[in-house]
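Hey, resending since the last one bounced:
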Amino acid sequence: MTTRLVSVLGLGPHAEPPHYAATAYQSSDGLTTSITPLVQRALVELEPEIGSVVLLGTSEVKTRWIDTGLARSVIGRDFGFTSLPAGATSDERWQIFHKVARVLRADPIDDLEDVEPDAITFDVTHGYRLQPMLGLAALAYVRSDEARDGFDPTPVRVTYGAYEARDVVTNVAPIWDLTELIVAAEWNAAFDAFLRYGRADEVHRLAFDTARTHRRDPPSSKALEAFAKAARRFADDAALARTSSIFQTSAEALRRAISHPDLQGWLARLPVLASPLETLSLRLRRLRSATVVSREGLLAQAALARAQFETGQFASAAVAIREGLTDLAAVVIGEGSTLEPDLRRPTHQARDAVEARLKKLEGDPQRSALRPIGELRHRFKRVRNDILHGGRDRPRAAPDIREELRRAVDEFSHLIERLLRSG
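The structure tokens again:
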């Protein structure tokens, strides 16, 4: 395994060489380096797998450290150097962003590497002013861009040599691992996609990637893999309108995966995820029911239709309303059990019979209860057909369809509550 070290270098606070105060550095597992003014030397000592080094700095840094050979002397090995502007203008800041992004991608760097590195360590210890901030922004962009292109992002570690936190007696400074801050931001973005758009692809990828890095902790690794599978199953069920699977299997399976002690133990390291997970858990609790065509099931159907609409899964929301109205009618007339999804017997004849009653209410003994269901079903028919048939017949503008679907979700929910309360 080979690692590329990418590290920002500043001028240093002292006019005389070696410009930075010398100290020993200590890794999180207790290894201590020789005394050095540059953290890059310490990282090379601590990480024998480092195969290439890239330094980033301004033209002034190049003059002080590179042209004099001082950096080569201190670090003890060859390296590549990428010159950065000062960042005084917006154009210069974007130049910094793109130059840093380039060396944080895994593509081999000309004249420095023959093959892609297996991992990257990004160190921000000696960064000057805004350089570390722009560097971390570039890192987040690169990882997101690689995922969008269908690649697994290269494993990255972010480090900071905390000279200011050194033990003044032993002159040993800790090297802090800041990677979890980047990991937390990625997880937050993944949960954002899950909660706002209903897709669990990034949650699934991150969970499995994290599980691979926690092989030495089997309980956490297994809990992460179970969570990844449960999240994808639930998301696919919601997108494909697998109502009974959601209510009876996938929502509860995901809720259990989230609450598993081993997963909670791992999540404690990333407290920023507590809020999105709480939101997800609340949503899942509304989507549990032992049956679909029942009072409990109809309340869950209303919650599902709203969740599908709010996550942009408009076709699935249309299906939920259309089929949910038939289920509501069946419950009102006391025939809900005949429509309950069951792999052992078909239910289409029973559904057809209920729908026929909704179409022809005249003389029906339960006309007063069925009428509002039939009216909403009739009004919604065109919207549902327009969505499911892709606007092939007299299509209307998307904003109009979206607004009609939103109103239908509200009416569907209110109608369920009213009829179940009166019943």
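The chain is about 55% helix and 10% strand.

Sorry for the duplicate.
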